[in-house]
Specification:
The protein is an alpha+beta fold and 558 residues long. It folds into 2 domains: 186 residues, Dipeptide-binding Protein, domain 1, CATH 3.90.76.10; 234 residues, Dipeptide-binding Protein, domain 3 (Roll), CATH 3.10.105.10. It is 25% helix and 20% strand. A 7-stranded mixed β-sheet has the order 8-9-10-1-11-21-12, covered by helices on one side. The protein has a 5-stranded mixed β-sheet with strand order 18-17-19-13-20. A 4-stranded antiparallel β-sheet has the order 4-5-7-6, with helices on one face. Helix 11 links the parallel strand 17 and strand 18. The N terminus is likely disordered.
Length: 558
């Protein structure tokens, strides 16, 4: 299954001053016995897959989460941000279209020095005016402002671009610097950028569109790329596999070299077959049940508490996720142990049970005025306690997770059912709020700000939501998020996080299940330089906006 990392939902801790110089370095590899590397004269094609799709439409709008480019993980190969962030290693980032940045005005302004000598794929120069134009697009059009950036103004001065905000944004660097930059000459003529298809994209990235069919597309080397010498893989292939089963078959047979899917029996079916069949699951986020807070009965706190008490997190981890993702341990949802240093001692009392407590779940409901009906399910006001959990049927781990949850909840007197949908239909329902409960991953970042902002910021819960999918609307929480964004130092961030952590733990706007991993399966027979625990220069997800960083590390095995 695909674990989205929405391009404008990436955040990071801010650091005043200038970015350190970043140098890409390929990972070392040694050819062992049994290897069959490609010959030096044969071109190496990298076939990637990040989510099943039956068919796709030719569109590469970097601001659309439903474009073919975004769905198949190709956007960042064509369009680029000012900074790239290493999600696998806290605090690490790379200067990209910006060579440095500096905060001013108490964190309300950030100035980027724009890299000179960068060209668009059509050969025209990328300028600070293009950067300012891109940020002004995000400011003007809410439908593409998926990061909820409250930009007040944008200004240019020489090679510098300054983005201004009404409130301090220290911990929001990742969202700010991850805006994709587009050419003003083209995008100034398209009207609402959220409605633009962008069938023939012109970007600054290492690849341009090669061929396209409804069953997939290829990207080929951009000869005008500013890091052209680092492009060692000439062609990227993005097939539209109809299901996880089809995608897995391609991986197992060697037709695909890089995938990001949950695979039951991964070691037996893939890793054990060859020493070049490898996988790395870097812990990045928290998977949760997300209740719609605008619909009954999931808008009832007692119901959410009962759900959290009744579910078997051990079974979700061991059976639904094949032991690849451990059970969440704290109701705050904070990714642990990754963010241990952000956890206050007061959170210890919100420890989650990894086994179900049906008696406690029932007691919570009874205390809230629910009574057991003749059908074996709780009732209140003449209505049965029932709801549907929606997730894509092709997300096989989530489908298994949801089946476990539904079974657990029935034992607790809650009539829960699982509805397996098509990916596109599910994405539309999540974005529009047409659901009662879903299983979803949290935003990923190098500080917890991204996680909590993605869960709780109602600026993201638009008609086409890019976060706050549960539709929480709380002025108190919004004020706390602003305090967190204004926290410059680690102690300030820990103090600002405390009320948000407690809110999630006590009010359960999301119900943590397991800690999510970056699903990353790769074949190093003919291609080397992959990220790994010993070389965590990136997380390795083929669908992530940072996959450009990975591809620029890759090279044919010599």
């Amino acid at each position: 299954m695909k674990r989205w990392v929405l391009e404008n939902k990436l955040r990071s801790v801010a650091a005043a001053g200038v970015l350190a110089s970043g140098v890409l370095a390929g990972g070392a590899a040694t050819i062992g016995a049994g290897a069959t590397p490609a010959s030096a004269s044969s071109p190496v094609v990298l076939t990637m897959e990040s989510t099943p799709e039956n068919s796709i439409t030719q569109g590469f709008n970097p601001y659309s989460t439903t474009s073919a480019g975004e769905q198949l993980g190709a956007t960042s190969m064509i369009y680029e941000p000012l900074i790239q962030f290493d999600l696998a290693k806290a605090g690490v980032y790379y200067p990209w279209l910006a060579t440095s940045f500096k905060w001013s005005n108490g964190g309300k302004s950030i100035t980027f020095a724009i890299r000179q000598g960068v060209k668009w794929s059509n050969g025209s120069p990328l300028t600070p005016a293009d950067v300012a134009f891109s940020y002004n697009l995000v400011k003007q059009y809410p439908d593409i402002n998926t990061g909820g950036l409250a930009i007040t103004s944008v200004a240019t001065s020489g090679d510098n671009v300054t983005v201004n905000f009404a409130t301090p944004q220290y911990t929001n660097l990742q969202s700010i610097a991850n805006v994709y930059i587009v050419p003003q000459a083209i995008w100034s003529t398209v009207g609402d950028p959220g409605k633009y298809i962008d069938p023939n994209p012109v970007g600054s990235g290492p690849y341009t569109l090669g061929t396209f069919t409804p069953q997939g597309f290829t990207l080929v080397k951009n000869p005008n790329y500013w890091q052209e010498s680092k492009i060692k893989i000439g062609t990227l292939d993005f097939p539209a596999y109809a299901s996880n089963t089809n995608a897995e078959a391609a991986l197992f047979s060697g037709q695909a070299q890089w995938e990001g899917n949950f695979i039951t029996g991964l070691k037996q079916l893939y890793s054990s077959k060859s020493k070049y069949h490898q996988a790395w699951f870097a812990p990045l986020n928290t998977n949760s049940l997300m209740p719609n807070l605008n619909t009954w009965p999931t808008n009832q706190l007692a119901v959410r508490q009962a759900v959290s008490l009744a579910i078997n997190r051990n079974a979700i981890s061991a059976e639904g996720e094949s032991g690849l993702e451990p059970a969440a341990t704290n109701a705050s949802g904070l990714v642990l142990p990754t963010f241990n240093k952000y956890m206050t001692p007061a959170l210890a009392k919100f420890k989650l049970s990894d086994t179900p407590n049906v008696a406690a779940a029932k007691a919570v409901l009874v205390k809230a005025g629910w009574t057991m009906g003749k059908n074996g399910y709780f009732e209140k006001g003449g209505k049965t306690l029932a709801f549907t959990i929606k997730d894509p049927a092709s997300y096989t781990d989530y489908a298994a997770d949801d089946a476990i949850v539904a079974q657990d909840l029935k034992k607790a007197g809650i009539d829960a059912t699982f509805d397996g949908q098509a990916v596109t239909a599910w994405g539309n329902d999540v974005a529009s709020g047409n659901f009662q409960m879903i299983m979803h991953w949290s935003s990923q970042g190098i500080t917890p700000y991204q996680q909590y902002e993605g869960w709780l910021d109602d600026a993201l819960a638009t008609k086409a939501a890019s976060g706050d999918y549960e539709r929480l609307h709380s002025p108190v929480v919004e004020a706390e998020l602003k305090k967190l964004a204004a926290a410059e130092t680690l102690p300030e961030q820990v103090a600002a996080l405390a009320p948000l952590e407690k809110f999630v733990a006590t009010q359960l706007p999301v119900i943590p299940t397991v800690y999510g991993a970056a699903f990353d399966e790769y074949n190093s027979t003919n291609i080397v330089g992959w990220p790994s625990p010993s070389n965590p220069y990136e997380s390795g997800q083929p669908d992530a906006p940072t996959n450009e960083v990975v591809v620029l590390h890759l090279s044919p095995r010599s």
